[in-house]
Write a structure and sequence with these properties.
Structural class: alpha/beta
Helix content: 25-40%
Largest sheet: 5 strands, mixed
Number of strands: 7
Radius of gyration: 24 Å
Strand order of the largest sheet: 3-2-1-4-5
Number of helices: 11
């Protein structure tokens, strides 16, 4: 007790550093500007996303309905925002914000925030790496054979149809090529484009679990370039090497590995003698250059 007032102790731990970085990026303000706010909201969408990030990096794994328990005893007003308490971060509020994020488009939102961060900290974007990864899930995730609909409060059927047409199509959680060696489980795919300067992600996309890299890599690079418009070198694995992909990237700079399913590449690997390789400026590496049309 001090001067008749009770002293309360609240924890920050490493979350104070994370909250500070989020504030420096201006993530809360950016999300609120993109998604919009309502004067009756106690916790804005931006503050909810900030809370999700703090929870995700809080070294815990709990169901959504236990989310607010994570913040009990923590300095929520200092970490998240003025007036924000643990009880305000209930599953209903989180669910509504997740719906808003989905309708707006996660890739679009991510790119906006990544652009602000890259500009603020002067991230170099001269060389970029595209790759995908699979994440397996437990459970059936049964696919419902029905049209996906959303309630639209409007008397204008044309406006309703146009709104539904703009909504992103839900991804399909299903079995596919498993990068984490669990082909027995269903999965989803995440595509990332990262810069060589600190491996900072600048583009993110979530996709169906059975999506093939070769079918989308060129499209992803073009979509990224249409937003960022960078004079960058794009690097990807052999999934980029297909006739359609390479024709789609004629105006961009790229590096990929020619797959050994190409007979000419396999022949070169087997037949090139060690004398044909020359030293290069990378220690421990030697190179031999060949051209092909």
């Amino acid at each position: 007790m001090r001067n008749g007032e009770e002293i309360q102790v609240q924890t920050l731990n490493h979350l104070g550093i994370i909250a500070g970085i989020i504030d420096e990026i201006g993530l809360v303000e950016e999300i609120n500007q993109l998604l919009g706010t309502h004067p009756k909201e106690i916790v804005s969408p931006g503050h909810v996303v900030k809370a999700m990030i703090l929870n995700g990096l809080g070294f815990v794994a709990a169901p959504l309905y236990l989310f607010n328990q994570f913040f009990e005893g923590k300095a929520t007003e200092h970490l998240i925002g003025k007036g924000v308490q643990a009880k305000h971060l209930n599953d209903d509020r989180l669910g509504r914000v997740l719906d808003q994020l989905y309708v707006f488009g996660l890739t679009r939102l991510f790119v906006n925030i990544a652009h602000k961060a890259a500009v603020k900290w002067g991230i170099k974007t001269n060389s970029l790496h595209l790759d995908s990864s699979s994440f397996h899930v437990d459970g059936e995730y049964a696919r419902e054979e029905r049209e996906w609909t959303v309630e639209v409060k409007t008397a204008n059927l044309t406006a309703e149809a146009e709104f539904k047409a703009l909504l992103p199509k839900p991804i399909e959680i299903t079995q596919g090529y498993s990068r984490d060696h669990r082909p027995d489980l269903k999965q989803f795919i995440i595509d990332l484009i990262c810069t060589n300067d600190g491996d900072v992600p600048l583009y993110l996309r979530v996709a169906d679990g059975n999506e093939a890299d070769k079918a989308v890599f060129a499209e992803l690079i073009r979509d990224f370039q249409s937003t960022w418009n960078l004079d960058a070198l794009f690097i990807a694995d052999s999934a980029l090497f297909s006739e359609n992909n390479l024709q789609a990237l004629t105006s961009l700079k790229w590096i990929t590995r020619v797959p050994l399913t190409i007979a000419q590449a396999q022949r070169l690997v087997n037949e090139l003698s060690s004398e044909e390789f020359a030293n290069c400026n990378l220690k421990g590496y030697r190179i031999a250059e060949r051209e092909s049309n």
